[in-house]
Amino acid sequence: MTRPSHALIDLAALQSNYRLADSLSKQASATAQTLAVVKANAYGHGAAAVAAALEPLAPVLAVACCDEAVALREAGIVKPLLLLEGILSDDEIALCVARNFWPMISDVRQVDALLAAPLERPLTTWIKVDTGMHRLGIQPAELATQYLRLRDSGKADNIVVATHFASADELDNPFTTTQIARLAAVAGRLKIPLSMANSPALLAWAAARAEWNRPGFMLYGNSPFDQPHAIADRLQPVMTFRSQVMALRQLAAGEAVGYGETWRAQRPSLIATIPVGYGDGYPRTAANGTPVLINGQPGLLAGRVSMDLITVDVTDCGPVQVGDGVELWGRHLAVNEVSRWAATSPYELLTRLPGRLRRVYRE
Ligand SMILES: *Cc1c(COP(=O)(O)O)cnc(C)c1O
């Protein structure tokens, strides 16, 4: 017997979301390209299967680091792999050349290392500029110098200049426009292809769409915004996190459920126990009342999330039996809603799903 809890991954929805992202890129220019970000195990969806499904569509896939890129090569992925965190040590430069990884280099020390490296052929290199996120990236005033050093060295080719937005998911925050202007001010006259947009920028900031766009989260079918958005709301959730009712019990008013007795029945209540918990990636911070779909009907999380189990008040869900279907999030219950109840971000809920949770892929 397999445990019924699993993440059902709809690869056709993934491909359709990619096509939507790519159509937004192409609104900037017919030659604009959309790479697919599959870092962090493809935001929890399983990097090898997701990359294999996107490889026929996307010209390039992006991961955070060399380790993730090597794992994709081992899984048979052959498209170029952009390393969003660049190179963390000099010996990774040879690996990049050998395996067609494209580093996004983000400081002058990395430029120096690339220029000093004995390379058999030039390495496709992206340069990250810090326009206001202030985590990584060379200073805007350094761009022209470092770009010319790289270009004239013969060690780098197909250079792209990139930046990353701090607040593109905030639709009325003008800082995205500020960041775009800061990049244009230093990159415009160099006539180099640009890459700026993550998912929220690709969806909502037309001026951020450039020759290369870098959506991640939206490919998995959820909106990066916490308000309605006409295009984002057309995305199709790729993951449906499912389980089954394992046990049922009737509680008298006044009885409590679970560790710490944090939920107490106000009336005679029917409680369903589901074999899923924080050990499967369901957030322990989910509050009493978090919706859980039972046969498509909204039950209410009742009591603390345990490692392997949750308990749900299904009193108002109609007839419920052991074995009935449960949706924790996905097609009919947005992960964004669950993340609000858990006081975290949907990015985190998806990304930290552990290996224990079975992924089932549907073409
Ligand atoms: C993760 C990441 C992205 C993708 O961001 P989403 O919000 O998931 O679309 C793009 N660019 C960089 C540099 C990233 O680290």
Overview of this structure, please?
Helices cover 28% and strands 22% of the residues. With 363 residues, the protein is an alpha/beta fold. Helix 6 (108-116) packs parallel to helix 7.
Shape: elongated
Bound molecules: pyridoxal-5'-phosphate
Number of helices: 11
Query: Based on helices, strands and strand pairing, what is the structural class?
Result: alpha/beta
| Portion in helices | 25-40%
List keywords for this structure.
363 residues; binds pyridoxal-5'-phosphate; 28% helix; nine-stranded mixed sheet; single chain; alpha/beta
Describe the structure concisely:
The protein is an alpha/beta fold. 28% of the residues lie in helices and 22% in strands.
